[in-house]
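Problem: given the chain below (96 residues), write out its structure.
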Amino acid sequence: MGELSELFHGTIFLRFAAALVALLNPIYGIPIFLRMTAGYSPAQRRRTATIAAISVITRIMAIVLAAVAVEMIISGTVQAVQMHYPNLGDAHPPGV
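Solution.
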């Protein structure tokens, strides 16, 4: 139970919420990024932005690859069903 209370500790929760907002809507993430990196030097800010960009791109690529894999599995399953039941999609079954 201690771990759950640590999650809702102010700083951790605010950082999580800010990261979630930035991922869901990058335009809203810009002011959050600027506010969270206000004390950083330009080099530190550039490095943080680069790491964040690489992280987001990597996650997007992983999600796309997972979606393609799921689509291939589902597509193969649908084709297999259609081969075994060719009249499955007909509006009227045979004999009606």
